[in-house]
Amino acid sequence: MQPTPVSATLQYLQSAEHKPVTYMLAPPGGHTWDTGCYASTPVTIIDGRGKADAPALDREGFQLCSAPSAMRSFGERDAIQRVYYREMEELARAVSGARHAIVFDHLVRRRDPETPTPFGARNGQRPGTATRVHCDFTPASAQRRLAIEMEAHGIRSVSRHAIVNLWRSTGLPVLDAPLAVCDARTVAASDLVAADIVYPTRTGEIFEVLHNPAHAWTYYHAMQFDEVLVFKQYDSQDGMSCFTPHAAFAHPDTPPGTPPRESIEIRCLLTFD
Questions:
Q1: Is 113 exposed, middle or buried (0-12, 13-18, 19+ CB in 10 A)?
Q2: d(CA 51, CA 62)
Q3: Distances (CA, A) of 199 to 36, 120, 196
Q4: Contact 10, 44 (CB under 8 A)
Q5: How confident is the model over 132-158, as pLDDT tens digits?
Q6: What is the pTM of this model?
């Protein structure tokens, strides 16, 4: 039996007239935290577990993987970098066929039910859930990341590069604020708007997203600790999935009293010969 689609809302950008800026620290000069205009937009989200043809990383732009981990706690950065980074690099290579996988960033998130924020951390707070529809990279920022990692790892040239995220619950099954991902094939280039995120030490460029009724959204009900959702953020090769918008959403059937979701998100550069 096919699971019933979920009716929910996702936060979309409303206009491409100006490049949006989101501050993750107190904005200078009395600016607002966000310069863009956003609205919660009704969408239908289906449960990917009910699909007869399982989504694939290089087609829809995302793939659910069985991936046990030796990690039992995600409270220590050193252990995450020493153990978990290696596990996720091995998984990323297996899923994509890349020759090299380099994890360059991670975020451990815990949803704060009192202070929902579009991208998580602000002013040194622990990262929450990201509720705004976005992609983590634009072509320009993906190229910058490639250059950084090539220099750091002595890589002279690559024929293709990609960036993927690997997302996992750090404990309980995900019933609260699950992550929805959009089929990359349903995203038009005109839906994507380059935006700046200003951190204390740098400014990153991402894509925010205009609503398009063609967007096809998927989540995976009650993701378990030994499951990882891998989804594409950029791919330099034509014909491959490239940008996979994503956002957390309020599931209308979340049982009362469900603990806030805790998760870890890995960002990984892939290079191909």
A1: exposed
A2: 13
A3: 17, 12, 10
A4: no
A5: 999 999 999 999 999 999 999 999 999
A6: 0.93
